[in-house]
Design brief:
It is built from eight helices and eight strands. By secondary structure, the protein is of the alpha/beta class. The strands form two sheets. It has a six-stranded mixed β-sheet. The two termini are 30 Å apart. Helix 1 packs across helix 6, helix 1 packs across helix 8 and helix 3 packs antiparallel against helix 6 (162-176). It folds into two domains: 6-176, Aminopeptidase, CATH 3.40.630; 188-247, no CATH class. The longest helix has 18 residues, at 26-43.
């Protein structure tokens, strides 16, 4: 197996309500993280693809579909996004983990990045030989369990640190395929430093209008329009690059 040349990202399951549910819906919530990781990779010129299964009608079809989708080529690193679940609902933290079949070291590194960026308990890398996207695909693969849908504390930490988590994981993934990058602006939670801003009020108003439209169309997983005043020029530019990369 040669070194992967692109990151192949997908959201687990086959639509809203088809995964675990607790304080959040697994698929809806995982989508926010996987889309943002993809956006960061593209903004940093890291080869990446993003996919959601909107075809399958049950879990068996979903696994077979995702395996077939990824097995169309053999040049990528597969990253599947999920949240875990136990019962009942709890306020205590449970943590995040990364499942693997062959990629033990990568799974450890991603689990650590997730934990370090968020304060989530690091449940580490977990070997699994019974998950189709890990065992039936030609390409190396990992499955990220960002946290537990039934843990109030996990969801709070994920909400508070979404951007930091996505930046940290994207950097680990990019390095694996030989595309290291540096985060251009310092992040704290989801607040971005406002240093080195040169856009005037008119420019920011136009950016706000554009990002609002892109969010309404589903291009971005979160509405950036109400955060323009907090964003540096570098942050605004990276979002524009992510959008333009999808249209050319």
């Amino acid at each position: 197996m040669t070194q992967p040349v692109e990151i192949e990202i997908h959201v687990g399951h086959y639509g809203d309500g088809t995964g675990a549910r607790g304080y959040v819906d697994e698929v809806q919530y995982a989508r926010k993280f996987m889309k943002r990781i993809y956006e960061i990779l593209i903004a940093n010129k890291v080869p990446a693809t993003y996919y959601e299964d909107k075809i399958s009608k049950n879990q068996t079809q979903n696994i077979n579909h995702l395996v077939a989708y990824h097995n169309q080529d053999r040049n990528g690193l597969i990253v599947s996004g999920h949240l875990n679940s136990t019962s009942p609902l709890t306020e205590r933290p449970i943590g995040g983990e990364v499942l693997y079949s062959t990629q033990n070291e990568l799974a450890k590194n991603v689990a650590k990045a997730l934990s370090d960026a968020s304060g989530l308990i690091n449940r580490g890398a977990k070997y699994r030989n019974d998950i189709g996207v890990l065992t039936k695909t030609y390409e190396p693969s990992i499955l990220i369990e960002f946290g537990f849908v039934n843990s109030k504390k996990d969801i709070e930490l994920l909400d508070q640190n979404l951007e930091k988590i996505c930046q940290a994981i994207a950097k680990v993934l990019a390095a694996v395929i030989g595309h290291p990058f540096s985060t251009p602006v310092k992040e704290e939670g989801n607040k971005v430093e406002t240093t080195k801003n040169t856009l005037d009020a008119t420019g920011k108003a136009e950016a706000k209008k554009l990002f609002g439209k892109l969010y309404e169309k589903g291009v971005f997983s979160e509405d950036h329009s109400d955060k323009i005043e907090q964003y540096s020029d570098g942050k605004i530019l990276s979002l524009l690059i992510a959008f333009l990369s999808r249209t050319v």
